[in-house]
# Entry
Amino acid sequence: MKISNCDALIFDLDGTLYNKKKIAFFTMMQQWRHLRILSVSNKRRGELKGVDFGDSVLYYQNFYNSIGEELSLSVETVKDWYINTFYRGFIGILEQRYSARKNLKTLLEHIDKEFPMAVFSDYAFVEERLRALEIDDSLFSVISHSEEYGVLKPSARPLLDLSLKMGVSADRTLVVGDRVDTDGEAALKAGMMFYHVDSEDKWDQFSKEMHKYIEMRG
# Structure
């Protein structure tokens, strides 16, 4: 894809700003004492793709209640596992086993001089996960996640809100993500451009295209 007519970027995090290969395996290894609740939570997230609850309160209420009902656990128990075990473990895995894409810092600093960027993930604790990957979160104008909006990808609503916060129209916003079925579909629904990055080769190509586009802008 040749980059053009772009005045803002929205980056996905997992699989885009770092190679998430084997992340599911490492998560299962870490959560081996909690495989049942991990499995049910993953299943529930899949069922909730694109289901818009309007806000995070209603989303979490439904998410925790449905898992608790299936496993005969209290909402408090499910919430405690999700925040204090799953997410803490997620952050720990990133710190120990993963690093940002090659030359990411240089690219982000170059883009930051020209136009605003956002990072948007389907999972929460985005700032903490960026820091775990040693990615400078100050380079992003907006940092957010799907759970905060009460709707998982591929909803267009969060993307439209992010572009509004950056002061750029949807048709001048480029979404960069590793999944066509979530990032790409959300971008399409929002009337935004989409750049698919799911490998080192595609990342290298995107980086070259973006540097070239910025130079062309003058």
About this structure: The longest helix spans residues 75-97.
